[in-house]
Amino acid sequence: MDEKRVAIQTLGCKLNFAESAAMMQQLEKAGYRQVPYGQPAEVCLVNTCSVTGTADQKDRQAIHRTVREYPDAFVVVAGCYAQLRPQEVAAIPGVSLVVGADYKTDLLPYIQEGRQEAARILTTANEDIARFLPACARGDRTRCFLKVQDGCDYFCSYCTVPFARGRSRNPSVASLVEQARQAAKEGAKEIVLTGVNIGTFGRTDGSSFLQLIQALDQVEGIERYRISSLEPDLLSDEIIRFVATSQRFAPHFHLPLQSGDDEVLALMHRHYRRDLFARRVELIKAEMPDAFMGVDVIVGMRGETPERFESSAEFLRSLPLSQLHVFSYSERPGTRALKIDYKVPEAEKKRRSDLLHALSEEKRLAFYRSQMGRPLQVLFEHGNKKGLMSGFSENYVRIEAPWRADWENTVQSITAGSPNADGTALVPQSPDGN
Question: 0.85 cut: is pTM over it?
Answer without folding.
Answer: yes
